[in-house]
Amino acid sequence: MSTQPLERQPLASLTSEDETAVVCRYFSAFNRSEFDTVTALFAEEGSLYPPFEPPVVGREAIALYLAREADGMQASPQTLEANPLEDGRILVDVRGKVTALVFKVNVSWQFVLTASGEIESVRVDLLASLEELLKIRPSAASFSEDLAIGT
Known about the structure:
By secondary structure, the chain is an alpha+beta fold.
C-alpha cells in the first residue's frame, strides 16, 4: 500500500488493485441500488453520516437507511484524493454529484478506510447554496422516527 498522498485525480483512473478500490465498488453498487453489497463493504460497526442527520451505525442500520433514502439516486463521483493516516487507515475525499428524481446536487464524500480495506465511515456533505438546499425536502425525519419506534 502506498504511503504517499495521492494527487486529486479522476475516479475513472483508479485500478481494481488500488487501495481505494473499495470506494469504486461502493459507488458501483450504490448506483445499482444494491445496498446489501454496499453495506458489506463497511466494517461491522461502520458509520454513515448523512447530511443534516444523526449518524447511522452498523451494517444493518445502514442498509435500511439506504433502502429508504437512496433508492433511485445516482452518484456521479468525479475526483478522488486519498491520504494515508498515521495509524494505517486511509482518508479518501471524493467530489461529484448526486441525482435523484427531484434534484441534482454537488456532493463531497469523505471515506475513512481501515487498514484491512473496509469502510470505517462515510461522511456525505452537500455542496450547495442555501437556496438549493431549501429546494430539497428530505424524508429523513420519518426514517429517524421509524427507528425510534422500532427499537
